[in-house]
Amino acid sequence: MQPAEPEQLRRSQLMMGTIIEIVAYGQDQNLLESAISAAFDEIARLEKRLSRYHEDSDVTRLSKSSTGGEVAPETAAVIALGLDVAKRSQGAFDMTLGRLKAVWGFDKEAPSVPDKNAITDALQGIGPQAISLDKNRVTKSSPQLMVDLGGVAKGYAVDQAIRVLKNHGITSGAVNAGGDMYLLGQHPERPWRIGIQHPRKQQGTVATVEIRDKAVVTSGDYERYFEQEGRRYHHIFDPATGMPARLCQSVTIIAESVALGDALATAVFVLGPQAGLKLLQHYPETEGLVIAADGTAYESPGWKGYRAKP
Ligand code: ADP
Ligand code: MG
Questions:
Q1: CA of 152 relative to ligand 1 center, distance in Å
Q2: pLDDT for 72-94, tens place per residue?
Q3: What does the alpha-carbon distance between residue 74 and residue 59 come to, in Å, rounded to a whole number?
Q4: What percent helix, strand, coil does the chain show, rounded to 5?
Q5: Measured from the CB, is residue 235 less than 6 Å from ligand 1?
Q6: Which of 57, 202, 207, 267 yields a CA-CA distance of 20 to 30 A from 72?
Q7: Rounded to 5°, angle at Cα 194 from 190 and 196
Q8: Pseudo-torsion of CA 76, 77, 80, 81, nearest 10°?
């Protein structure tokens, strides 16, 4: 007797400011249905805690408070991971850029280049030392500091969605949140093959990798940007200048968790190819592909192990 063909279920929803797609394979359509809907529920729950656009999220409460406060364990976990990357990257990754992001207006319809004073002001008191964590208590070093977990929260949510799928017994599936993805187990017919978006050619790829039980995360200057006087301004900031980071077009990280991959992709993007790939050496089981500002590709030593065989 032939084994039954595995069923596939694919769903997508607009959440956390992006389209989140979940696919799961298995024999039981009802199980796939309930697993995927529970995974989306988990993302919605986390979004309420981690988003600066929710009035009563931990992030909004922290930003409003002058000294900090108690946060949910999930929020503390995200901040702990972010602080580690912030310190190891010498502040290239920074979760205290909330005010800077606001002055650039990336949340609004028409973002524009702010004036110098507004940028200088928004950078006051920021940095890896500006927030600290003791268990679930966050302390801010200055009252006006605004927390923004946008560089890591989506990744964390994908990890948790994967955990929910696994708890439902799913052994093969994927979650993709606009370029932050995790590939669980084995695709039914072949390994998961992921084409990495070319930063300048909409239909093109810069590489194809074969992945199993790992995160693949890409940060690029083509995702959210505007142009003013012929220049591109995107939403990954160099905390040293308050301007969009200029050294890369895109960074892809392969890691054990999407949260780590997400934070590292942002950090490496700011640091640029040389310093960025050096940072990855602190994180075992982590590889990267950097497309520099001039279009040159740089790989970490172990990247080739993931390259798809033609
Ligand atoms: P995407 O959301 O497109 O996948 P990223 O993961 O790189 O891209 O996250 C970009 C977001 O991270 C920005 O919208 C902002 O909220 C936040 N951010 C911008 N610059 C930094 C930085 N240097 N460190 C940490 N977070 C940042
Ligand atoms: Mg990121």
A1: 7
A2: 999 999 999 999 999 999 999 99
A3: 12
A4: 35, 30, 40
A5: yes
A6: 267
A7: 160
A8: -150
